[in-house]
Amino acid sequence: MTATAPIRVAVTGAAGQIGYATLFRLASGEIFGAHRPVILHLIEVPPVMAALDGIQMELDDCAFPTLAGVKKFDSDHLEDAFRDVNFVILVGSVPRKQGMERADLIRINGPIFTSTGKAIQAAAAKDVRIVVVGNPCNTNCLIAMSHAPDVPRDRWFAMTRLDQNRAVAQLAQKSGRPTASISNVAIWGNHSATQYPDFVNAKIDGKPATSVITDHAWLKGDFITTVQQRGAAVIKARGASSAASAANAALDTVKSVIRPTAAGDCFSAAVWSDGNHYGIEAGLVTGFPLTSDGTNWRVAPGFQVDDFSKSQIDKTIAELKQERDTVRDLLP
Ligand code: NAX
Questions:
Q1: Which of 52, 91, 97, 158 holds its CA 20 to 30 A away from the CA of 10?
Q2: Cβ–ligand 1 contact at 138 (below 6 Å)
Q3: Do 93 and 137 belong together in one domain?
């Protein structure tokens, strides 16, 4: 791509809550820059296609100078939908309904990500990068990437950024410091209630969070459970699941991947474990602390994993293994 070539971004579930909240910021120039035209590929299930017409009208009515095109596709034509796309945000999935177990949800959504992975491999641009938001996002990402073996594994991310942002907000509120003072917050493991928001390596104004927040019982207790349960708390209060904050986190993930990470900081996303980092076994998509140079990312080295952290990480990795086993027949 040259600097002014349009970037093509596909969003599945584009008419859903999160998709809708994502599109306008993607189109606005905020993410890829004021001089990079953006072509949006909006993808929905056939019964919802009409809603995309309305969203296209709204996108038109924003008159964004950076928006160079809007294309609409139904999920029965995924290769057309992913043709030449440089970024894919996979939001579309069936939401968890009352009485549904997590394992049921995994079985329902798994097949969607099988066909998605195949279509991305068949049609996307050579530099494609993919952020999986639809839940269970770690395992959906594992399924999709397993069906796209020609797409390098380092192009796939499952979203733990909302958890990172939630953790930053909690640390800022507890310490009475602005969110800009908080850095180096990692989320380990699964985007679920077992995730481990890592306060041990977090910093506040460049100092260890554990030296600024002296209430260590809070760090080991309410801090972790508040972040783990935040999604449920939002649903209870709002009567609907996190949407604007989830869209924001998806876009933060994209920005963190394509822009250099500040020295001494990290960002969180779940990526393929190659078995070489922090004792986590290969073959899982798990949250790690990452840094980017703006083109390539790597797992951030030097994070301290004490006994408490290790026990938390072990729990969430055990859950990821269980999820992988639940969908083993969907993994080639
Ligand atoms: P909505 O139900 O509002 O939207 C989902 C949209 O996806 C719907 O418009 C639906 O028609 C579409 N869809 C379903 N199957 C599709 C397919 N095969 N291809 C294309 N589109 C399809 O849900 P929303 O609130 O937007 O949430 C979407 C997903 O994000 C859910 O799986 C949800 O659990 C997940 N979340 C993930 C988060 C994370 O941090 N990773 C946090 C927020 C959110 O809970």
A1: 97
A2: no
A3: yes
Alpha helices in the chain (DSSP H): 17-27, 49-62, 78-81, 102-123, 137-146, 161-175, 209-212, 216-218, 224-228, 230-238, 244-258, 307-326
The Cα–Cα gap between 259 and 61 comes to 29
What is the 268 CA–ligand 1 centroid distance (Å)? 20
**Per DSSP, what are the bridge partners of residue 290?**
267, 299
Position 2 in a domain: no
Q: Given the CA of residue 51, which atom of ligand 1 is nearest to it?
A: 9
The reported pTM is: 0.97
Q: Where residue 179 sits, what CATH number does that domain have?
A: 3.90.110.10
Residue closest via CA to ligand 1's atom 8 equals 16
Which is the closest atom of ligand 1 to the Cα of 20? 26
Q: Ligand 1 pocket, 203 CB below 6 A?
A: no
User: What confidence tens digit (pLDDT) does each residue in 161-190 have?
Assistant: 999 999 999 999 999 999 999 999 999 999
Domain ranges, residue 18: 7-158
Together in a domain, 25 and 98: yes
Token pair of 288 as six digits: 């790690």
Binding site membership of 89 for ligand 1 (Cβ less than 6 Å)? no
175 occurs within a structural domain:
yes
What is the best residue among 79, 135, 142 to mutate for testing ligand 1's pocket, by most ligand atoms within 8 Å of CB?
135
Residue 10 in contact with ligand 1 by CB distance below 6 A: no
- Would the CB of 43 count as within 6 Å of ligand 1? yes
| Same domain as 46, residue 110 | yes
Catalytic residues: 191
- The tokens for 323 are 């999820």
Q: Looking at the structure, do residues 153 and 221 belong to the same domain, yes or no?
A: no
pLDDT in tens, 56-65: 999 999 999 9
Q: Which tokens sit at 140?
A: 């959906």
